[in-house]
Design a protein that fits this description.
This protein is mostly helical. Among the domains are: 48 residues, no CATH class; 93 residues, Tetratricopeptide repeat domain (Serine Threonine Protein Phosphatase 5, Tetratricopeptide repeat, Alpha Horseshoe), CATH 1.25.40. The protein is 67% helix and 0% strand. It contains 23 helices and no strands. Helix 4 runs antiparallel to helix 5, helix 5 packs parallel to helix 7 and helix 14 packs antiparallel against helix 15. The longest helix has 20 residues. It holds the Pfam family TPR_16. Keywords: Repeat, TPR repeat. This is Tetratricopeptide (TPR) repeat protein.
Length: 456
């Protein structure tokens, strides 16, 4: 891609004035203690299955699996060294990133907790716990631990990155820009570039976002998975621009290095569906499901069957989605936003969809607001839906689904000019944005183009 050579210094903050989002104060009251005795204590006790037990029956297959086993053995040899537990925590984090399986969060927390108990001022332990809480969407605790790490090392790039991650999820883009810029100033690497790229994309600048993500890919990381994740994000950006072939090529290139990478395979499945390649999409989604039950893969397979009119086969996958949700609930894994989206997308369990979505009724997060507005629309609460969808639209995130939802809400409120504009925007971004909804968007826009019937 022939992108302009943007300067890395201040490349993020240059866009902050275009965001125009309300700055939340949710992180400001956090006042981490300065002494170890007053620090927040992780909630999980040090009792868990061994790594080998969790990898059974297949045993260690990947490079990361072998690193996990080696790290666990090191904790047995040197249990009083914080470094041993940090090594295990880092390997568990890597496993979670590769598989997207939430179960690894708990194991990583236990490892970092042990390291923190041995060395309360260890920044790697503090940041590890911050990362775990962030992954669970407990952002207040995530920021608390990251700020404790900054008290030890005020320039630590990972601490700034984690605080930025929380700010992104909370819709506080201005705080996110500041944190990511501090991270980039401290250490411009794959982690800093990729975080900045996603934030810039959320803010509506696809071109600069793709350039930054390519910088991340070129920088490389300590694990092939790190670079694979950046390829996934780049493909996502291309997909949302309707550039399906370049998106597919980005994924295929990365899969040659990391063939089992779940996020890459999920992205490949989505692209293949949009390209009307049922066999390719099925292969990608099933490759994920052979590793672990996965919400996105199950919904993708169900939608693929619905697209072909196979309702019974689709329902079998949707029942697996419900079963996974129940399993997640038993483990304390929060998946309510994605379940609300699933229900609304498929016009089922609409009361539950709204209940789940309204857990974030005060959200400034783009996708939480979009999901809430979509659930409200399906319940006929059009005025409130319009108010909420405006939050999702505010940043200019180039995602056709958001504009499609906004277009249907405007149609329901008889705002024909607004609806036409929003639906046209959705289809101009990517006319194949969703297997079930793209056709509906075309039909809705065609109906709006017809003259209104007049009564004599």
């Amino acid at each position: 891609m022939n992108e302009p050579p943007y300067p890395t210094s201040l490349v993020l903050l240059a866009s902050v004035t275009a965001v125009g989002l309300i700055t939340w104060s949710i992180m400001n009251p956090v006042a981490p203690a300065k002494v170890a005795g007053d620090q927040p204590a992780p909630a999980v006790a040090m009792e868990a299955k061994t790594v080998m037990e969790m990898l059974a029956p297949a045993g260690p297959k990947s490079k990361t699996d072998r690193l996990l086993v080696e790290a666990e053995q090191m904790t047995l040899k040197r249990p009083q060294q914080a470094a041993s537990w940090i090594q295990l925590g880092d390997a568990l984090v890597q496993k979670q990133r590769e598989t997207q399986a939430p179960v690894w969060y708990a194991q990583a927390e236990k490892a970092y907790q042990k390291a923190w108990q041995i060395e309360p001022q260890n920044t790697e332990a503090l940041n590890g716990l911050a990362w775990v809480y962030g992954g669970r969407h407990d952002f207040k605790e995530s920021v608390r631990w990251a700020k404790l790490a900054l008290e030890v090392d005020p320039t630590h790039p990972i601490s700034h990155g984690i605080i930025g991650d929380a700010a992104v999820e909370l819709g506080d883009f201005e705080r996110a820009y500041e944190s990511y810029q501090a991270m980039m100033d401290a250490r411009p690497d794959l982690s800093a570039y990729s975080r900045g790229a996603y934030l810039v994309w959320l803010s509506g600048d696809s071109r600069k976002a793709r350039w930054l993500m390519q910088q991340a890919i070129d920088a490389g990381g300590p694990h092939a998975e790190n670079t694979a994740w950046c390829h996934t994000r780049l493909a996502m950006m291309l997909f949302h621009e309707g550039a399906l072939l370049p998106a597919a090529q980005a994924v295929e290139k990365a899969l040659r290095e990391t063939p089992d990478h779940a996020p890459l395979l999920l992205m490949q499945g989505k692209i293949k569906v949009a390209m009307d390649d049922e066999a390719g999409a099925t292969a990608a989604y099933q490759a994920v499901l052979t590793q672990e039950e996965n919400h996105e893969a199950l919904v993708g397979m169900g939608d693929l069957h619905l697209l072909r009119g196979r309702k019974q086969e689709a329902e079998a996958f949707f029942q697996r989605v419900e079963k996974l949700h129940l399993s997640n609930a038993k483990q304390g894994i929060h998946d309510h936003t994605q379940m609300a989206r699933f229900y609304a997308d498929h016009d089922r369990e609409l009361e539950k969809a709204l209940t789940f979505a309204e857990e974030h009724a005060q959200t400034q997060n783009v996708y939480e607001a979009d999901t809430l507005a979509w659930a409200l629309y399906h319940k006929g609460e059009f005025l409130r839906a319009r108010k909420v969808i405006e939050i999702a639209l505010r940043a200019g995130t180039p995602d056709a689904e958001i504009y499609y939802h906004a277009g249907l809400i405007a149609t329901a409120l008889k705002d024909r000019p607004g609806a036409k504009k929003l639906l046209a925007r959705a289809l101009s971004l990517n006319p194949r944005f969703h297997p079930l909804h793209s056709g509906k968007a075309v039909k809705a826009l065609d109906e709006l183009a017809q003259p209104l019937a007049t009564t004599e």
